[in-house]
Specification:
This protein has helices at about 25-40, 55-70, 85-105, 105-115, 125-140, 150-160, 160-165, 175-195, 200-210, 215-225, 225-235, 240-250, 255-260, 270-285, 290-300, 305-315, 330-340, 340-390, 395-405, 410-420, 435-445, 480-495, 515-525, 525-530; strands at about 45-50, 75-80, 145, 170, 390-395, 425-430, 460-465, 500-505, 510, 545. It is an alpha/beta fold. The strands form 3 sheets. Strands 3-2-6-7-1-8 form a 6-stranded parallel beta sheet, with helices on both faces. Strands 4-5 form a two-stranded parallel sheet. α8 (about 175-195) packs across α9 and α17 packs across α18 (about 340-390). It is elongated, with a radius of gyration of 32 Å.
Length: about 550
């Protein structure tokens, strides 16, 4: 099946998903086996959303085996997993099954192939299955089942010149990276203490005014974690950081906290006589709130310092939350009776003070951002220099350089051509924890699968399995909502070349009991709760295969 006819919906034939209908364990197991078989179909690209304990590793293993059984070269399969342990587990499962097939009696081997493919194999396929173990071992390069970091490392070693990295580079482990970062921070502090960099000293002072030493450490940690996202702006603004940031925030070169506060005075629509009349009316109102209002206005009138005067105006016209005060707090009743022409001007003044306050808040954010980016610029440059001297890259560098390499306009096409000799099928495990930069790598690798000369229907496939609910949020920059977004993009690209695509759900859990899973579904049946769980507006459904097993949920 190709094109739109190949699209499937995971809920169309799912038993028990309709209200009031409960399928037994055998029915669910049979249905899930069929879905797993569809997910491992080597002729189509597939996006799988799988609950915890629903057999993700089994499906991945089965798909790799079926790709080999369908004639895919072992070296043409790239499976990207999240951890070394997961890569090792999957590789062991694949080779264990292929090794068993090499020695299984013919009838038993035919039964196993029929189980995963849904049809009895002929003698030719059985003979091929027996040779797969040796074929996978002997193929140069072999099966590529590895973490995305390991893949990117091998890519950069293959194309160091194009990636602009040292050909002999080695990768920093977490401990070595932390040591190098500590050296970079020490160099930053030394430069600050010696006053050799006034902008850096000012940035440190700004940060310490906002937070203590622990806050500074947290900021430096965030800078390191997000340095690749920050770096394009820093490089574009090199030598003119403050100017570039002022442009981004809409402030001219003369803007400062003092000049912005000074724009509040004189108040629009209230001349000196009207202002004095407003104070007199407020004092004559008789209430304590009106009296306080009058004294605050008088203090503002007597003040020459723009910042202090604006603080009085904020107190007079704005609430503690920063919004314009209501009419009843601005002696409107007395104003309407004694000076109606001033009443409307007072409300306009409240809006004016609010606008000035908003500009000041943005300016304070600008100052803090400038301080943070100044630290980021100096720290990043020192850290990069230390790595360059030692010929080192860290894990984030591997992803960033690989993404840049694959998307470069000058050499990207040639690199894709070279890689096209080796990759026809990409599988992504734990896709909900794949960071945006990592998705850029995956997307760049599969770009030619579905466009131009690289679009070969039925021969090149994308597969991803994940579950937003299981995301380790923000870990290594994970953005779980990208899993669904990338799935929609892949679907459009696959269908555009009339190739097969399926979006599949695996709700059956082999791990937990019905009591526990139904409690989870009940919690997230509330729309407000579901928003915190998934970017998709779909009901959360878990089905347990352990029907009849005891389970208990305690609400504390």
């Amino acid at each position: 099946m190709t094109g739109r006819a190949a699209m499937t919906s995971e809920t169309e034939t799912a038993p028990g998903l309709q209200p009031g209908h409960d399928a037994d364990a055998e029915t669910w197991l049979s249905w899930t086996t069929g879905r797993q078989r569809l997910a491992s179909d080597p002729a189509r690209s597939v996006w799988v959303s799988a609950n915890a304990g629903s057999g993700k590793t089994h499906v991945l293993t089965q798909r790799v085996v079926r790709l080999l059984l369908a004639g895919a070269r072992p070296s043409a399969i790239l499976c990207l997993t999240y951890t070394k342990a997961a890569a090792s587990e999957m590789s062991n499962r694949v080779f264990r099954r292929l090794a068993e097939w090499a020695v299984l009696p013919e009838a038993a081997l035919a039964d196993e192939i029929a189980e995963i493919e849904g049809a009895r194999p002929d003698a030719l396929k059985i003979a091929m299955a027996r040779r797969l173990f040796a074929h996978a071992l002997e193929t140069p390069g072999g099966l590529k089942i590895q973490t995305i970091h390991a893949f990117c490392e091998s890519l950069l070693h293959r194309f160091p010149l194009e990636a602009n990295v040292a050909g002999h580079f080695s990768v920093l482990d977490d401990t070595a990276a932390a040591t190098l970062l500590a050296d970079a921070r020490l160099g930053l502090l030394t430069a600050t203490a010696s006053r050799e960099d006034p902008a850096l000293s000012q940035a440190f002072q700004t940060v310490l005014d906002i937070a203590d030493d622990s806050g500074l450490e947290k900021l430096l940690g965030e800078i390191v974690r997000n340095r690749h996202a920050i770096r394009p702006f820093l490089e574009g603004a090199r030598g003119r950081l403050e100017e570039a940031l002022r442009e981004a925030y809409g402030f001219d070169a003369d803007a400062s906290a003092e000049t912005l506060a000074g724009k509040a005075w004189p108040l629009p629509g209230l001349g000196e006589g009207d202002y004095s009349a407003l104070i007199a009316i407020a004092r004559g109102d008789g209430g304590s709130r009106a009296g306080q209002f009058a004294e605050t206005l008088a203090a503002a009138l007597a003040e020459d310092d723009a910042a202090i005067r604006f603080a009085h105006l904020e107190e007079a016209f704005l609430t503690k939350a920063g919004a314009p005060k209501a009419e009843r707090t601005l002696v409107f009743k007395s104003l309407r009776e004694k000076a109606p022409e001033i009443a409307e001007a007072v409300m306009a003044v409240a809006d004016h003070v609010f606008a000035v306050r908003d500009a000041l808040l943005r300016y304070r954010i600008f100052e803090k951002t400038l301080a943070a980016l100044t630290l980021a610029d100096r720290l990043d440059r020192r850290y990069e220099e230390l790595k360059r001297r030692r010929g080192k890259l860290d894990f984030e560098d591997l992803i960033a350089h690989a993404a840049s390499l694959l998307t470069r306009p000058d050499s990207g096409q040639w690199i894709h051509y070279k890689l096209d000799q080796g990759i026809d099928h990409i599988l992504v495990d734990e896709a909900q924890d794949t960071a945006p930069l990592q998705w850029d790598v995956v997307r760049a690798l599969s770009e030619d699968f579905f466009s131009g000369e690289g679009a070969r229907p039925g021969k090149r496939t994308m597969f991803a399995v994940g579950d937003e609910k299981q995301s380790i949020y923000s870990f290594q920059g994970a953005r779980p909502e990208r899993f669904s977004a990338e799935g929609r993009l892949a679907e459009r690209r696959v269908l555009a070349i009339d190739a097969g695509f399926a979006r599949i759900g695996l709700p059956l859990s082999f791990r937990s009991t019905a009591s526990v899973l139904s409690a989870v579904d009940l919690v997230f049946s509330v729309p407000e709760n579901r928003k915190g769980l998934s970017a998709e507006d779909e009901a959360t459904v878990h089905i347990s295969n352990r029907i009849g097993h005891p389970g208990r949920v305690e609400a504390w």
